[in-house]
Amino acid sequence: MSADQGLREAWEKIPTGEVGQELERFAGRRMERIIAIVVAVGALALGIQALLNALAKLTVVDFPHVSMMALVFVPWFVMLVCCTIMRGVRVAAGAFFVAYIIDLLLWPFVASRIDVISADQPWIFFLVNVAGVAAVVAFPLGIQVLWAVVGPFLYGLVRLIQGGFGADFWIVTAFDVSFTLILGLVLVALGWMFRSIATGVDDARGRAVASYTQAAAADAAEHERVAVAALMHDSVLAALIAAERAHSDREKHLAVEMAREALTRLANAEAPAQEGSDEPVQIELIAADLRLTVEQLGVHAAVEHFGHGAVPDRVARATALAARQAIGNAVSHASARGLAIVVEGHGDTGLTVKVSDTGGGFDPERVSPDRLGIRASILARMAAVGGVATIDSDRRGTVVTLAWSHS
Questions:
Q1: Residues 6+ apart with CB under 8 A from 157
Q2: pLDDT digits (tens, 9 = 90+) for 56-96
Q3: Second label for 396, Cα 20 to 30 Å away, from 70, 120, 168, 388?
Q4: C-alpha distances in Å from residue 293, one per residue of 18, 137, 260, 297
C-alpha cells in the first residue's frame, strides 16, 4: 500500500464526504460556514435598523443622500445573499466594507443637512459593526483588528465634523464610539477564537491521518512479508524438495508442474489474496488434496479420512495449505519418517486435521522469528479463519493439529 493509498483510506474512515485538500480543512470550512450564517443574521438585523432609520429621516428626495444609501445598501443586500448561499462571501463582504468606508468619508459633506441639530445616531452608526463583521469574513486578522480600533474613532470624527464639534455631539458620540469599539473587538476576538479552534481540530485530524497512514503502510508491508514468506514455504520449498527427490520421468514431470505453479503464484504475489468463499466444501476433498500433496512430494505416507461433513471454502483452503506446510516441514526436517495424516470430519460442527511424524522433534519456542513456516503458514493461517493450530513436539516426533469448529 502506497502512502497516497493509505492517506485516502484514512480519510475514508473519517466521515467527511469529500477527498483532497478540502478534507484537511473540514472543521475550518464548517466554521467558516457558521461564521457566514452568524454574520448574515447580525448584518440583517442591524442593516434593517439602518435602512428604516435612513428612510424615516429622508423627508425630501435628496439625490446625493439617496446615492449614498444605494452605495452601501446594495452591497449589503448582496452580502446577505452570498452568506446564505455560501458563494462569493469574501468578495461581497469586502465590497460592502469598502462601500461603507466611502460612505463614512462622504458623510460630512453629502449628508451635512441631516441630523445636524439632532444628536441621535444616524443610520450609518448601525453599520459600523456590520462593516466589522464583514472585515472578519473578508480580510486577515490584522485588518480586522485595525478596523475594530480605527473604525469607531473614524465614525466619531465624522459625527463631530457633521455637528460642528457641538457639545451635544461630544457626549453621544463618545458613548457610540465606546460601544462600537468594545463590540467590534469582541466580535474580532470571537472570530479568531473559533477559527483557531477549527484549525486545531484540523491539525489533530491531520496528525491522526498521518499516524494511521504510517500504521497502515507498516501493516501492509508486514502482511506482504508474511504472504511472500508463506508462499515461499508453501510452493517454492515444496517444488525444490520434489525436484531433489525426482528420479523417474513422472516425478520429474510433477516437479516441473509444481515449479510452474510456484512461479505463477510468485508472479501474482501482489494480487489480492484469494481467501475463498463461504460455500461449503466436503471434508473428503480436503483429504484428496492432501493425498495429492503427498504424491507430489514423492514420499510414502498414509492419508486417512474419518467422518464426514462440510466447511466453508475459505476454511478448507486455509486448512489444506496449513496441512501442506506441516507435511513439507516433516519432509524437510524429519525426512518424512513415520509421516501420517489424519482428516476427521465432525459433521456440522467442524473438522480436525493431524499431521505427525517420528522425527527428532524440535522446540517451537526456539524457532527464529524470521522463519515463518510455522508462524505464518500454519498458526497465523488457521487463526485468520477462526481456527486453532497446536504443535506438540519432542524427541519422539511432532504432531501438528489443525482444528476448526462452527461458532
A1: none
A2: 777 666 777 788 888 899 999 999 999 888 888 889 999 99
A3: 388
A4: 50, 73, 15, 6
